Amino acid sequence: MMAPEPFPIVGVGSSAGGIEAMRGFFEGLPQPFGAAIVVVTHLSRDRESLLPEVLARFTNLPVEVATDAAVVQPDRVYVMPPGVQFGISQGRLTVSPLDPGLRETKPIDVFLTALALDRGEGAVAVILSGGDSDGAIGVKAIKERGGLTFAQAPDEDGPETPDMPFSALRTGYVDHHAAAEEVGALIVAHNSGRKQAGPALNDDPNGVAVAEDVLAEIHAILRRQVGHDFSGYKPTTFRRRLARRIVVGGHDGPDDYLARLRTDAAEVAALFRDLLIGVTKFFRDADAFDALAKLVIPKLFEGRAAEETVRVWIPACSTGEEVYSIAILMLEHMATLPALPRVQIFATDIDERSLTVARIGRYPRAYLDTVSSERIARYFVAEGDSVVIGKAVRDLCTFAPHSVLRDPPFSRIDLISCRNLLIYLGLDAQERILPTLHYALRPDGYLFIGMAENVTRFEDLFATVDKWHRIFQATNTVRPVRLPSMSGDAWAELVPGARPKPQGGLVHANLRHLVDAEVLAKFAPPHAVVTRVGEAVHYSARIDTVLGVASGQPTHELAALVAKGLRLELRTALREAIETNTVVERTGLEINLASGLRQPLALTVSPMAMHPGTEPLFLVVFTETAPASAREAPATQAEIGRDETVRRLERELSLTRERLQAIVEEYETSLEEIKSSNEELYSVNEEMQSGNEELEASKEEVQSINEELHTVNNELSSKIQALDRLAAEQAALFGSTEIASVFLDTDLRIRTLTDAAASIFGVQGQDRGRLLSNFAAPFSLSWLSEDAAEVMAGGGTTDRLLDGTDGNRYRARLTPSRIDGEMSGVIANFVRVPGETV
């Protein structure tokens, strides 16, 4: 009996508030679907989840809460329960409770990484609406093992929160950027294409069937457009990656795909990147990192005193795996040194979301299968199914946003690790980047690049240290370097279709209409509208009863302006509403009015329904729960019952604990933001210093070039004068000899001639370039072409006596004319023989 064909497993990642995105995804699923769906969300362990019941309203597929060891079946939906470690192994879900007090902050990354390892090419990742950057590492893991990846594209239904889809998109590992309702049909089409491809995706050693002439042309297109020759690439791997692109693009076969490659440069680049996809993990290409540790890192510390600094730059650091790998190698070598110089590792990228992942340094445990257990124990801290980079490693690294194509480079760098960036750029961009990296390095600094990259066109700038592992050393050659422009985004082509996150809300007039409509439908109390960072963008007319400020458009944080009795409650409520995307209420509050009365209030924070692509806003409403009253006189202990006193104190204690927890969390967040800002400012300072050094060097180079140009100008003037004298002397020489000489090219056209020859043939200055045989002469020229061919072929001379119609006899001699050693024509000399007449 044949084993059943494996079916795809689709991992869907979203935040708990992304209901509209999940509605669009499930309502757009074709029937039958033919794949299993596992939904992973950010859920609080302290709250009961109703997500399975909600999803059951959107689809006819059975929906169930995932249980440990459950065998995954096609056409079923499994929902991750809250408060667990969630994964998959050998087609069975793994569910285990988290330790008390522990919360898994990256559950989507954890599950998708496990899914990639378990299902390989049968794994599918779908990243829907959600905050943070969870899912970026999981998408990379799925794509690296041949799976299919999706990120939700903006439409009228979302994504409500675009951070997660954009983070996945900026990794460069997303196959399709599509609306939520379109994803299901694309998955079915892809699965159908995989079945038709047959052997190519089922470990057949022959791969997809491609004719040799088609394969040769695909190799030629890649070689011509991206500059890499894949004719020596492993045939089975090449054919499998080729089959994947054929299926992803929905092509009929290799011939149809070749037709697209001939006209679509973007698809050529996509095929190129798929061919080079490896496993982007810690210590990727372990042999290369071993060579770096052996050949380069010890030399970085040679002769360095404790007060000196070893500087490393890692552009395009993505989510930080390469950064921390090099930092670990540095720490391992530093452990052998008696005196430790300072180490600075600058890690930069254009994607803020990737930098956020790198700064936190949290990765799924399965992602570290290439890291030894000794290194994990020494340099990482385990937290559930994730690990966090240790403080000793993290303290060496400074993360900052930076474009190597657009921003000034760092300077005085000892080692630049720029692996697998050049393959994503065109030849023009590579021509700009490599001289820039050479400029950033110290003399004899080192460059570490990817296995598919090279510096062949810049051999004058880099000497080879280890050709196989792509380690090079900067030479002392000084080449003028133009720093990149400070405007524009030169990396936009890396993520087609990606759009920057909106920076502002709606204009005030439109916003006022939207707010008035919502408030009139629900409330009529004082209210304000704030952004995700708590900055107010609109006040109602009666807001002064709470804030004491006039109505209008403010520029301050709302929580800093409200009465003291409301500040902590407003901060905690706003943060909870942002994290959960739900309405948050606080009751039992009060403020003191200017009249001396006490006003009871209730606070409500609710997310506003905004248009897709705009910044999320939140409506803050202050509701008067009772009329204002005079403050009561203090009650005596006898007037208050013991039970009431206990209940009041317990309630106050509970509120105080919540407020204290909120303050602690805000303090930790502030510390992280300050640290991030400090790193960015440090990076900007380095860039400014580099720019200043470049300006000084440019000034000296311009002055030197100006002096060289002045010298060259004088030399050219002298040469022109010498040429003028030579031309005059040559003309006088020809005039004095009275020899009729004609210089002919290989086609026997006139190049130049003497005055004596001009009088014989009746040639004028404008006749240069015409055939000599076109002019009347006192003798026949029928012999000219034959004799000229003989002279130019043999290199000798010919002589003839010609009888002229003017009664004179002429001697004609042809000699070869050579310029730079090559035959350029013949020279014809005509001399009247004295004393001889016809």
Q: Tally the beta strands.
A: 29
Span between N and C termini?
112 Å
Q: Rg from C-alpha positions?
A: 39 Å
Low-confidence parts? 199-207, 485-509
The helix/strand class is alpha/beta
Describe the structure.
With 838 residues, this protein is of the alpha/beta class. Helix content is 39%, strand content 21%. The protein has 23 helices and 29 strands. A seven-stranded parallel beta sheet has the order 3-4-2-1-7-8-9, sandwiched between helices. A hairpin with a 4-residue loop joins β18 and β19 (471-474). The longest helix is centred in the C-terminal third of the chain and has 96 residues, at 642-737. Residues 199-207 and 485-509 have low confidence and may be disordered.
Q: What descriptive keywords fit this protein?
A:
23 helices, seven-stranded parallel beta sheet, 838 residues, seven-stranded mixed beta sheet, elongated, 29 strands, 39% helix, alpha/beta
Summed up, what is this model?
With 838 residues, this protein is α/β, with parallel strands linked by helices.
Element layout with pairings:
Layout: E1 9-15, H1 19-27, E2 36-42, H2 51-56, E3 63-65, E4 77-79, E5 84-89, E6 92-97, H3 107-119, E7 123-127, H4 136-144, E8 148-152, H5 163-170, E9 176-178, H6 180-197, H7 212-226, H8 235-248, H9 254-263, H10 265-276, H11 286-295, H12 297-301, E10 309-314, H13 321-334, E11 342-349, H14 352-360, E12 362-364, H15 373-379, E13 380-383, E14 386-389, H16 391-394, E15 397-401, E16 413-418, H17 427-440, E17 441-449, E18 462-466, E19 471-474, H18 508-522, E20 527-530, E21 536-539, H19 544-547, H20 564-580, E22 584-592, E23 598-607, E24 618-624, H21 642-737, E25 740-745, E26 750-753, H22 755-761, H23 784-794, E27 798-803, E28 808-819, E29 822-837
Parallel strand pairs: 1-2, 1-7, 2-4, 3-4, 7-8, 8-9, 10-11, 10-16, 11-15, 16-17
Antiparallel strand pairs: 5-6, 12-14, 13-14, 17-19, 18-19, 20-21, 20-24, 22-23, 23-24, 25-26, 25-29, 27-28, 28-29
